[in-house]
Amino acid sequence: MNVLITGAAGFVGGALARRLQAAASLGGRPLQRLILTDLGFGDSPAPGGITQHLAGDLTDAAWLDAALTAALGTEPIDVIFHLASVPGGMAEADPTLARRVNLDATQWLLARGQQQVEAGGRAPVFVFASSIAVFGALPAEVNDDTALRPLLTYGAHKVVGEVLVDDFSRRGWVDGRSLRLPGVLARPPQRTGQLSAFLSDMIREVAAGRSVICPMSPEATTWASSITNVVDNLLHAAVVDTTGWGQSCAITLPAVRYSMSELVDALVAQHGPAARGLVSHAPQPHIEALFGRFPPLSTPRALAAGFQSDASLAALVTSALN
């Protein structure tokens, strides 16, 4: 089995790559190649054995085609985890770069699946990392029928990506699954453009005994998952039977909904009473409008398909740093 991960040096991509390298299998099938692509590789698994590095720019279609051909020869790609993106704040600041990464690169990877099928091969499973940013302004409850009204360029690009995955899947060129990821915790301190990075900061900094400022009020509510839970769901997406999903390959993942005050309580329960004094609040209306008004979340399609959230907020806080 040949598996490709884009954005393999990112927080989620690196965790997924490490899990796959350690298991050396997916869905009970052994991995022949684990191909990692990114501009550089940082903490990603080192090359060797089943693991290959392809360092380059996904927005360069000629490089991408040549690199994959050199890595695979005439062998097919069995699974593509497409995680590479230009996220939230970075996409707002540089929409041209965001279009190239979030839209152009996605189309070229999907086209690779088309080429594989038209050459007589099987369609690759295409796991696309979408985002809850597709929803934008939120109603009183979010469920499987909630309309997509993105408020940010990043969310708009993810909507387009979902539509492309649906269309290529309809034509039989890929076997698509688009997962709408919530906030993923706890990201490392490097700034990569996520406007919601403060949610990770709260967990990580308090665990280290350092003070942190939350840009939302104690009553603000959000959704999130631990990195462990998200990797579990990505791996499940690659092997789940999508029969009965209907016309759309997109699915909203279950997540833990909590308020900032509940998060502080969970941190106190884990680290002791002193943790409460480490968190202060300085609400920023723009940030709270984007991340602090999340209503109840209902995801029956995802639950029926075997996807899961963290068991509780306490479990999320524990898993987020593991």
Automatic annotation (TrEMBL):
Listed InterPro entries: Epimerase_deHydtase, NAD(P)-bd_dom_sf
Residue intervals of the NAD-dependent epimerase/dehydratase domain: 3-213
Database matches in Gene3D superfamilies: NAD(P)-binding Rossmann-like Domain, UDP-galactose 4-epimerase, domain 1
One of the Pfam families matching this protein, by short name: Epimerase
Top-level taxon in the UniProt lineage: Bacteria
Keyword list, A-Z: Carbohydrate metabolism, NADP
PANTHER family reported in the protein's UniProt record: ADP-L-GLYCERO-D-MANNO-HEPTOSE-6-EPIMERASE (PTHR43103:SF3), NUCLEOSIDE-DIPHOSPHATE-SUGAR EPIMERASE (PTHR43103)
The protein, known as: NAD-dependent epimerase/dehydratase family protein
Species of origin: Ideonella margarita
